[in-house]
Write a structure and sequence with these properties.
Elements lengths: L12 H5 L2 E11 L5 E9 L2 E4 L11 E4 L6 E9 L2 E6 L5 H11 L1
Antiparallel strand pairs: 1-2, 1-4, 2-3, 3-6, 4-5, 5-6
Length: about 100
Amino acid sequence: MQHDGINGRNDGHAARSTRIGVEILCEVRQGTRPWKVARLEDLSPGGFRIASFADARPEVPLRIRIPGLQLLSARICWVRDGAVGCEFAEPLHVAVFEHIVRAAG
């Protein structure tokens, strides 16, 4: 796992651009579909990538449950070869982001 850290700049740019390779099992769903277990492989304060999410519908908001956190909302930005890139509806607070990274090991 790589972690570039936050460089302390006040413009928020570092928080938006920090992207960490992680492996976290979480649960995702769209609309009223059942919850599915998914592997989160890439995380930044602004979004994430899921390794595989069959039948992803970019027009439908996505809900994600990351262990230890409240339910989060996101939108699908892209789908490639089964992988799905998403943007959080509200970016993660830097402390929450760093907590997830530490917990992921």
